[in-house]
Amino acid sequence: MPSNKSVSDAPISQFINCRILRDHCLQREDLWVRDGKILDPEKLFFDEHGYADKCVDCEGSIIAPGFIDVQINGGYGIDFSQACDDAGSGVSLVAKKILEHGVTSFCPTLVTSPPHVYHKVLPQVKVHDGGAHGAGVLGFHLEGPFISLEKKGAHPEQFLRTFSSGGFRDLMETYGGLDSVAMVTLAPELDGSQSVIRDLCQKGITVSLGHSVANMSQAEEAVQHGASFITHLFNAMLPFHHRDPGIVGLLTSDQVPAGRTVYYGMIADGIHTNPAALRIAHRAHPSGLVLVTDAITAMGLPPGRHTLGQQVIEIQGLHAYVAGTKTLSGSIATMDMCVRHFKHASGCSVEEALEAASLHPAQLLGLSHRKGNLDFGSDADLVLLDETLNVKATFISGEEVWRK
């Protein structure tokens, strides 16, 4: 029988023999969970006189908040940017598979596509919590089509759009609706973009700057209108220049409004960014770094030809190229790989590596009151890792959903 009937009939789990990531530090203490939330043990003991119904021996593991991937285009043969009748089942398959990589929440990402793709796919997938069925969906990340022709990367040129007929109206005509959208990546130098940024932010949608030739003042103006993220820093933007650092300059800009943080995504796969560039970004602005996989259909599959939206992608070793070119097009990295590579390449602490995949993306999306940390009252989305940051088990709402 539950031990705490005065407050709840739900059983209490106690995770023992672990080090938990709390207040930016690994602490050797137990973790208590009830009703899918993290409990304050002092209140449990002294106010309720409660105790654990179930004990989980973590065998010396690190317990970190579940990883959150805000940019993932698909994986395991699924391409989120395909206009199919069962987009939901594809998202569900990827959601299930990424549990083994410690991901408990994610933003399915659509690359630049023709309007009919958005109109078909977006209504099929709703924001929902994770569980044994897979990682939770936090909302779509729409990367394009309002991006720069010069920095389109792997995005198909024929589907790029501008804000030619009124800004937000162009956006709604293209996407069809924003009900399940968490983030939009756009180029802030496009005419009309600043009012679109403001309108999106007012609707609670995160705006990211990317695939852009914006100069620093254009980037700063976008941030002043509400933009708060940079899509895969260094990739698909003007390179840093000492007289005009461009979007990269936001990392140390003095024009960011007080109390605001500009976050930036890094694809820490050892391919997209030289380790020295990763170190420069991290040392300049450590609290803004968000690890993203930018994973594509081919994640989890053998080398060969696959798709990314309307493009054919060729996998050669660990590289993903637009077929017939040397244009990088997403990655085949998993989130736990990115965490390990980031720690190795940057020389950062274990705590910093883990927070870049959990706390920072939660803060970016305005979810840190319940996700991305192990504070009392937060969701008990957990990842158990060994000393070398290999995933041993994943829990959502305190329930085990994957174990090695």
TrEMBL record:
Residues the entry annotates as binding Zn(2+): E143, H211, H232
EC number of this enzyme: 3.5.1.25
Protein origin, superkingdom: Eukaryota
Pathway: Amino-sugar metabolism; N-acetylneuraminate degradation
Residues of the Amidohydrolase-related domain: 62-401
Entry's cofactor comment: Binds 1 divalent metal cation per subunit.
GO MF annotations, alphabetized: metal ion binding; N-acetylglucosamine-6-phosphate deacetylase activity
Gene3D superfamilies: Metal-dependent hydrolases, Urease, subunit C, domain 1
Top class in the EC scheme: hydrolase
Keywords annotated in UniProt: Carbohydrate metabolism, Hydrolase, Metal-binding
Enzyme active site: D294 (proton donor/acceptor)
Catalyses which reaction(s): N-acetyl-D-glucosamine 6-phosphate + H2O = D-glucosamine 6-phosphate + acetate
Cofactor(s) required, per the database record: a divalent metal cation
GO biological process: N-acetylglucosamine catabolic process; N-acetylneuraminate catabolic process; negative regulation of UDP-N-acetylglucosamine biosynthetic process
Family: Belongs to the metallo-dependent hydrolases superfamily. NagA family.
PANTHER family in the cross-refs: N-ACETYLGLUCOSAMINE-6-PHOSPHATE DEACETYLASE
UniProt cross-references to NCBIfam families, sorted A to Z: nagA
Protein name (record): N-acetylglucosamine-6-phosphate deacetylase
Protein source organism: Gymnodraco acuticeps
Organismal lineage: Eukaryota, Metazoa, Chordata, Craniata, Vertebrata
